[in-house]
Amino acid sequence: MTTLLAAFVLGTPDPPALADFYRALLGWDEVDREPDWVRLRSPERERPGLSFQLEKEHRPPAWPSGPGDQQMQAHLDIQVDDLAAETERARALGATVEEHQPQDDVRVLRDPHGHLFCLFLPGA
């Protein structure tokens, strides 16, 4: 039996808009676009990809979360060479930097639809 992680899927109220953000952030190629579904792929590798599906009732997680809050169930970790420059580039694309930062060599941000993601330096 062979298994392969094919994609990570984010639910969002606007799949095309969120895909555009991550396409610009990651430099990935769009391989499929429908109003309710968009799929991105790295130009260097076919898998895993990043997909976006319509989720009209999406609620962003709390960070850090407390009792009764919408929990963060998953997030993307994105390795960068220059943490300050890539944080500013992500902000220019529409991301926001979270107030709570657990480490000096990691930045916790939110994409335009509220999903948390981390930028981190090699070795972090």
Automatic annotation (TrEMBL):
Residues 4-124 form the VOC domain. Residues 42-60 have a biased composition (Basic and acidic residues). This is VOC family protein. Gene3D superfamilies: 2,3-Dihydroxybiphenyl 1,2-Dioxygenase, domain 1. Residues 42-71 are annotated as: Disordered. InterPro entries: Glyas_Bleomycin-R_OHBP_Dase, Glyoxalase_6, VOC_core. Pfam families: Glyoxalase_6. The lineage of its organism: Bacteria, Bacillati, Actinomycetota, Actinomycetes, Kitasatosporales. It comes from the Bacteria.
